[in-house]
Amino acid sequence: MADHATVTYPAGDQAERRFERIIGNSAWLESVLDQVEQVAPTDSTVLVEGETGTGKELIAHAIHNASKRCGRAFIKLNCAAIPLDLLESELFGHEKGAFTGAISQKMGRFEMADKGTLFLDEVGDTPPALQPKLLRVLQEQQFERLGSGRTHQVDVRLVAATNRDLVKMVALGQFRSDLYYRLNVFPILLPALRERREDIPALVAHFVKLFSRRMGKQVDRIPPETMAAFQWYSWPGNIRELQNLVERSVILSRDGVLPNPLHKKQTGLMIPSLHRTRGLESPITLEESDCTLIVETLEQAGWIVGGTRGAAAKLGLKRTTLLAKMRRLGIARPTSLEETGVPGIA
After folding, report:
1. Which uninterrupted H or E stretch holds 139?
2. Which has the closest alpha carbon to 273: 302, 234, 230?
3. What angle do CA 262, 263, 264 make, to 5 degrees?
4. pTM above 0.85, yes or no
């Protein structure tokens, strides 16, 4: 059918690279992987920062796999998923009778990760009372189990991750500054999916292949309008949201064609400014959604097109590509504040 595009799955160099589970070749992603390759051979602590769903655990695995500890234990713990009164035991272990319900000795995650890597996800959720003990084990590689005075020595490489603003938390007294500096030895900032849009086709193809195999369905064509919808959606849930929606789309697929699962999300999330002027039930074209997204991104960037903080980078486009789209869509910078439509400005 002429109105459908053939799916191209990641292959060649992408499939053979060291970080085979990390899909994409955008400048943003290549920069992140360069940092991973630089820090992986060391034992330095790494702080992976980024929004929820950007793949922080995958980066932690990549650091471990590219390090001299590869082949040793990779232990993970989500600090936000453990009740506060149990987190200390999960980290450091406990002796029998250390507290009510401690019916046997338990090894903590630091002990499990000896000679390997410990990944602490959502480290910003570590309670203040526990932060000094975490700082100590990072500095001295020593700890005591709950209910024991015996000191244990470990050799652990720590990779921590957070979606919170730790600098702001330090300023508010919610996170110890000395622990923050100890964690922030080598920071890696992961881009949001909307900042690496050129990777979306490869990610979509990867997840289509994954879920079609699992479900025993043949999906080999993605209509251009479906791929365009994936590329222009804002993805507040990042790669995790993309994965879930591709799975839904594969479930709904017929005759080997991937449908667009974003109709409701496009009218509900991508283009709220059009809702205010046209109403929820009005049909919205892809060209209109493109225009709205570009204008909103330009406004967020102060109408700066190029540079690392410009709209082109935020949209995952080259500066010349964005300028060409602006010319085609008739988008131009307002000549006065009054034309921006911001209320209260005369």
Report:
1. helix 131-140
2. 234
3. 95
4. no
